[in-house]
């Protein structure tokens, strides 16, 4: 694995030793890369389904062919091997084709979520060192060309409305677009006008159907990324400031796949429905790796709808659904649940937050599917997991049994290892499911690892005598809304830019559907006024992602302080709980 100049771990650092240990694992779970696996499926099961998107079907032959053709376009645009390419696309088939094409072309994807707003997009492209971008013409109603202005993006590949092949490439280095726009201002087709929809397989090698020539094509010769190479940088919420870029190689997800198959008893005849956007860690194994390694189809939907997700399970005979807790709770609340046949569903993988016992038990009763989870993060991968062989209590009241190979430890506040006594302590690990650290951020990596090389989670946990882990508290200042970690500090940074705000503290307010929502306690400047609508309009104008907008605003005269002078956020959370309790009491009287 090669880090670009100025981004490699410092020689002799804990991070460098950790990366070396992880690279020593490469190849333990097979020698094929993900493109190799797709190529094999295309040869052996060419008409088998890889993706299902509405009425459209993409076969393994198509997936291999389209990704190869797009990989060729990436290389022909002038990208060197190892270059970083931002991918900013809605969820759907196109984003998965783009990710696979990047592996074939030997370039690294800087993955950006479809809900990211201007500030986050520009930050991730900058930190990731992206020199190219794959996107639509617009993102969240804003022209992407203006969004990336001044960032040094030399190559911008704009996808058309119906196909990844309906694209044009503009390159500032060439001083002219490789495929100029037509008179309407829309991108001209890079191959044929009216080219096929990316997800259709209604041609049988016809004239418009691309063919995969990865093995013999000179354009791609020697370019494909290996199992240990960096293939993806995606974002994670930091405890301060803007998101960090997490470094991934394929090998960690091949190992993760082994864990998933074992705990879910997964087979080659599964049908996956993945409801998590493609850039996130949870979606890496549930959409990009495990279905592909099994040779199973993945059902995708561009925008989550509880009603439509339930209908998709029935229509496509889905056996494995992958979602955050908020999404399955919304499905439980949907009237469609009583109208559809969910008998095909065997299990649901959820995560990203504590699994609510009563609602999870209700999901099992009403669907017959077992609720499973991995405990971990984008950085750490999986420390523990529940299994189809676990009891209901073990599946739904714990975070599962500790994974021996992940070498899980619990550390007290003073750094003492309290694993032997079962904690409580901050959970940490040092195993093959972990990422390779943060990209170009040595200070953050120093905080991510203990001095002797364990990767920290920020969660306070216990481990019982049978090896089952429970999360009992949170050390990091995160608000977990719908499975997404929201940095309280990042919210405070942005709210604090409003001219009316003197001081601000962001905390979680409990919510029955989303688990937590963002509440901002604000001290106003003298004679200033502020309401939630004005605050959110200010954040919108700044290009702040909606997840970082407060959903509740509390105006206070002062913020409580602890003995060290820090804001006593526990007192603010107690205040919110007291208000909620009083409201519940009055409504029941």
TrEMBL record:
Top-level division of the source organism's lineage: Bacteria
Boundaries of every AMP-binding enzyme C-terminal domain copy: 491-566
Stored Pfam families: AMP-binding (PF00501), AMP-binding_C (PF13193)
Positions of region (Disordered): 168-221
Record domain AMP-dependent synthetase/ligase: where: 39-439
Residue ranges, compositional bias (Low complexity): 168-184
Biased composition (Basic and acidic residues): 190-203, 210-220
Matches recorded under InterPro entries: AMP-bd_C, AMP-bd_C_sf, AMP-dep_synth/lig_dom, ANL_N_sf, ATP-dep_AMP-bd_enzyme
UniProt name for this protein: Class I adenylate-forming enzyme family protein
